[in-house]
Amino acid sequence: MRGVMNKPSESKSLTRICRSWALRLAWPVVIGALIAVWWAAGRPSTWMAQAVRSRTFVVPGVVLIAGAAALSAVLGAMARLGRARLRRLGADRRGSAVLEFVLLFPIAMGIVLVMVQSALLMTGTLLVHYGATCAARSAIVWVPADLRPWGEPPNVVGPPGGSAKLQRIRHAAVLAILPAGARSGRFAAYADASAVRHTLEGVFDAYRRPAPGWLDTLLEARYGYVDDENHTWVELSAPTWVADDDADDAADGLLDGRFDNGSSIPPYGPREPITVTVHHRLYLAIPYANRLFGEPLEGHPGHYATEIVVRTTLMNQGRHDDVIVELRPDAAGDLLLPR
Questions:
Q1: Residue 324 in domain
Q2: How many CA atoms, within 13 angstroms, populate the side-chain half-sphere of residue 167?
Q3: Smallest Cα–Cα separation from 169: which of 118, 117, 80, 233?
C-alpha cells in the first residue's frame, strides 16, 4: 500500500525536475537561435546586413535579451515569494497578492519600458539604414540630371540650403524614415504633409482599400518631425573626378572637362562613386527609458532623441544624356521640379 502511495509523489517529483531543466535550457536555446538569425541576416552585403551589425542595433538587442531574462527572474522570484507568503498566511490570500504587486510592479515596469524602447530603437535603426539606401539611389539619378534653371547643370550639386538636387535626395530619406517619426502633435507645424497624404491615398485607392485613419492622426506629426532639417539631413562626398581633357562642351559635345559646364562648382564624374551620409535624430518615445538611450532634443524640453549616422556608396548613374527628368509646368507656365 505504501509503495502505491509513493508513485504519485515520485511522478510529481520527476515532473518538477523536468520542468526545472526545461526552464534552465530555454534561455540558452532562445539566445542561440537569436544569434543564429542575427548572423544569417548580417552575412549578405546589403543595407540590412549593415543595419543589424551597427552599434545602435546590437546594443539595444543585447539590452532587450538581458531585460527579458531579468524580467523572467523577477517574476520567478516574486512567484516563489508569493507561495511562501501563502503558506505563512494560510487562507489570507489578499495580503499576499497586494505584497507581490507592490514589490513587483516598479521593477517589472522599469524593465518593460527599457525593453520596449530597445525594440523601437532597433526598428528605427533599420528604417534609417533603409533611408540611406533610398537616398543613395536617389542621388545617382538626380546628380547627373540637368537642372540648369535651378543653377545645377549635369553632375553638379549646389551647396546645402540652395540645392534642388540635394533637397530631392534628402526627401527620399525622409519618406523611408517616416514611420519612425514622433507622434507628438508638437512637431506637426514643421511641414505640410498634404502631398504625402495625397500620394498615400492614391496608393490605397489603387488597391481599392479605404484610407486608414492614421493618415489623419499620425501622418502630419511624424512627417513634421522627420522632414525638419534639424532632425534629418544628408551630405554628399566631395567630387574627386579629374578631367580627361580641357575641351569645352561646345567643341566636343561631351561633358568631360572640369568646369566646362558653365558652373564654378566641381562636377562628379560619369562613373564616380558617390557616398551619401544620412543623419537622423531618432525620436525616443518611451518615458524614463528614453534617457538611457538618448540625449535631450534641442528646443524641445522633455523630449529625447539619439543621432544615427549611416553612409551608403553607389556608382553615379552616368552622363546627363542617359537620364531623362520630366518637368511639369504650373498654372503660370513655369517649370516645377518634381518632388
A1: yes
A2: 11
A3: 233
